Amino acid sequence: MACDRCKIKGKSVPLETVKALIKASENLAGNAYDACMDLECDVIYYSTEQVFTSSQVTVAPWYKNFVEDKVLCYCHNVSQEDLDRLMQEYPEEGYEALMDRFKGIHDSDCLHKNPLGKCCHGTIKKYVEDSRN
Ligand SMILES: [Zn+2]
To answer: Tell me: the pLDDT tens digits for 92-126?
Structure first.
């Protein structure tokens, strides 16, 4: 399914995730939602019958250009800035060791907190590896 605004195909997200991250004032009309992955598009989730833009959700996805504070781990509120700081402080440490420095990071609720409803560890790993190359 392609986003209604940008016409780019998004990524399917669990219904549970959309339910958890839309504002309390919003209602779900569909049964299957995709996340719009376009960097500029203001649409966060869409279905064939409904669209949720950034002002209708409680989460700010890191992959959108208009989001300034780029959180990567939503369960523990770890931002790109936090990771940059850690990578500077421990230049010799790999992704695993850095992750262990965040207390409780392996105890997660990604389905209800991450905008894609998925574990963030792959995103963080890629961020750390890309930053170091
Ligand atoms: Zn879009």
So the answer is: 998 889 988 887 777 789 999 999 999 998 999 99
Neighbours of ion ligand 1 (CB under 5 A): 3, 5-6, 36, 38, 41, 43
Domain count for the chain: 2
Across the strands, what pairs with 33? 13
Q: The pTM is what?
A: 0.90
79 CA to middle of ligand 1, Å? 24
Clarify whether residues 86 and 45 are in a common domain: no
* CATH number where 83 lies: 1.10.10
Angle between helices 121-132 and 80-89 (to 10 degrees): 50
Give the domain extent around 48. 1-68
CA 112–ligand 1 middle distance (angstroms) = 22
